[in-house]
């Protein structure tokens, strides 16, 4: 069987010369976008999804006259591809992917594929937590500054679809580790690594080092003309930095120590400097995004803006007025002096840690769902000090009970958002916060984290 390096070399040597046939695996936002771009570039395109295809995407494929199949992978229609574009949700261990690798067919990500057909510069943001917020904030700053910029990757519309239809000069791309795994020749002009904490370890043989190595692919192919922005306070990032050579200009950010080039916190002000003059200074109380984790996110976005030599006034204004994305520490309502917060996007333990860290009251915590091999140890101190009750929302809550039964007085099982909100309402005391921050994926009871968050918000509004 070929290793990833073999695939990379195979891809480098053959490009698309082996065949004009491109097969897309997965027919979600990423896959349908890749199909659209492949068709526009003149390839013979086929789309295959092992599950059902959503009606909207099916309609898109039919409108473009692109042949597709759902609920199966027909090997005879896939293994004859010159190249395969794989949706990030499909693991490399999937039988069809293994068969392709054995046959020597290059398997790449949509991001890799799309980048071949645009001269736009890319700002690529990855990390276990905060990448959606940082991507949105960076996009907001650049757009406010008048740049011709698109937002894509793990957020918004497919990168490939935008390359097919738009003419942007810059793209802000939210990049997951799954995308990075299938990227070989791709280069980020500006790479941002926010943090590395245990997540998706089921895809990495339950080894944090494997996951960290995936994240470090964000710097591959960079040169001294590029920029690499990273958190100097993150222990796993510091360890991972020792395993790679960084060719790009490095800009660390820290809230614990002063840095010469990059960003740091001192006396409740952040200082951002990329060229040793014209420093941007901003009080953290003026940031639209509050909480320690959002200081980091704002610093990362601010460094991107300074690398692009945007005006301090524009950066300050944008970072002061930005509205965060839905389902990420989203205020829902205050009822009988109890605050309800929707943090449904917190699908791993570290995100829930950030959420608890940012709340300054007693908490009734709604958590649970599909456990991805979570280690709840990092939450214990915050749970002991802040959480008065845990409302489990999921089909199997045993691991949450085992983790926290000695830390809180009340742990209750519920099986719908409405039931969870009703129980939390009766457990919450005046002045406290009901926080939905699940630390788990949503697929046992909901379509996705958005569906979970929307059902939570609807239930709160029924109170």
From TrEMBL:
ATP binds at residues 127-133. It holds the Pfam family MurD-like_N. Cell wall formation. Catalyzes the addition of glutamate to the nucleotide precursor UDP-N-acetylmuramoyl-L-alanine (UMA). It comes from Pedobacter helvus. It comes from the Bacteria. It is an enzyme of class 6 (ligase). The gene is murD. Pathway: Cell wall biogenesis; peptidoglycan biosynthesis. This is UDP-N-acetylmuramoylalanine--D-glutamate ligase. Belongs to the MurCDEF family.
